Amino acid sequence: MTEKIHAPVIAWFDIHARDLPWRRPEAGAWGVMVSEFMLQQTPVNRVLPVYEQWLARWPRPADLAKEAPGEAVRAWGRLGYPRRALRLHGAAVAITERHGGDVPTEHAQLLALPGIGEYTAAAVASFAYGQRHPVLDTNVRRVLARAVTGVQYPPNATTAAERRLARELLPEDEGTAARWAAASMELGALVCTAKNEGCGRCPIAARCAWRQAGKPEHQGPPRRGQTYAGTDRQVRGKLLAVLREAHTPVPQARLDRVWHEPVQRARALDGLVTDGLVEPLPGGLYRLPLA
């Protein structure tokens, strides 16, 4: 099965891969790392303009490390999940201090950086350095669930069985393994999508276990939706928007105007402070963090 799906998926990728800036040679390992932080739970079309601005301003980790963490939060804009900006800033500081400003090549060194988990370490090692690692994002997990396991959707959280399957499916050759990682991810993003799978365009449709089984409906736990309106996430976003646009500390009264419900607003602001995204100052003032 493994050899039968590698070649057609990679051949499809050679023709249909999107021309994305982090896939170009000039992006380097830092560009790949920035893209991986930004693309978590965020679509490509929203990431592209922020990514371009980020790399123009901070072309190397050391350039970002010199800045206050609040500047990373400011530049993150409306990408959402802004703790990623703080984590990326922390990683840049560590790269500068521990590795002379160059993104490390070893998987273990990547994993030791603050804010870097198993997925991001594997993705950077694979996409930036062409190494052989299983790269399991949502798109890849969905492709493997359908093509190999024969179910419509993977579990809500990555399982040991999925990791084992991904390792077993890795081509032995490093370069081929890295290409497979990128190709299977692109297949899930463009063809084997969550809602409208394009089996007529899929290079492995004839070998897909889920399709051969008649596309049985999902039998697992309900899939998590991503609601936003009225949530604490929305309130946090509104509070951060005010602070991003201000270059001097903001009084509490100005923040109070962004959301009508005081208890939820206070909870959201407290959460931002706890997460290190907002710094409280004497006199009821707030700003993005300086350290």
Automatic annotation (TrEMBL):
InterPro entries: DNA_glycosylase, Endonuclease-III-like_CS2, Endonuclease3_FeS-loop_motif, HhH-GPD_domain, HhH_base_excis_C, HhH_motif, MIG/MutY. It catalyses: Hydrolyzes free adenine bases from 7,8-dihydro-8-oxoguanine:adenine mismatched double-stranded DNA, leaving an apurinic site. It holds the Pfam family HhH-GPD. The keyword DNA damage applies. Keywords: 4Fe-4S, DNA damage, DNA repair, Glycosidase, Hydrolase, Iron, Iron-sulfur, Metal-binding. GO terms for molecular function: 4 iron, 4 sulfur cluster binding; 8-oxo-7,8-dihydroguanine DNA N-glycosylase activity; adenine/guanine mispair binding; metal ion binding; oxidized purine DNA binding; purine-specific mismatch base pair DNA N-glycosylase activity. Its EC number is 3.2.2.31. This is Adenine DNA glycosylase. It comes from Streptomyces malaysiense.
